[in-house]
Amino acid sequence: MKFLLTLLLTASFAAYSADQITEFYIGDDGRLINWRVSDDRAVTLDSAIRYEEQVSIRLDNDRFRASTNHVLRSFPLNFEAETIELRAKLKTKGTGAYAGANIFLRQDISRNAIEFSNSQPFVSANDDEWHAVRVAQVINPHADSIVIGAFLSGPGTAWVTDVQLWVDGKQLSELPNTELASTVSSARNMNDLQELSVNWQELNEDTINNLVRWMKVWGFLKYFHPEVAQGNFDWDLVFIEVTRSLVLGEALNQSINAVLDDISAPNTLTSSNTDLESRSTLESAPSWYLTDTTYSRDIVAALEALRLNRHSFNDSVYAFSDQMALPEFAREKQLSSEHLPNEIRLLMLARLWNVLEYWFPYREEIQSDWYAVLNQLTAKTLQNHSEFEFKKILQVLLAQLDDGHAGLSEAIFKKGSCYLPFTVRHIDTDIVISRIHKDLPTKNVQVGDRIVAIDEQYIHDLIEEQTPYHSASNETHGYYSIANGLMARSCEEATLLSLSRAEEHHQVAISNYGVPEPAHSVPGEVVQTLEGNVIYLKVSGVDFDMVDRALELSSETGKLIIDVRGYPSAFILYYLGNRLAKEPQKFARLARVDPASPGRVTMLEHISTLTPEDSIELDGIAILVDEASISQSEFSVMAWRELPNATVIGSTTAGAVGNVRLVPLMDGISAYFTGLRVYDKNGNDVQNIGIVPDIYVRPTQSDIREERDVVLERALEILNDFKPN
Question: Name one GO biological process term (predicted).
Answer without folding.
Answer: proteolysis
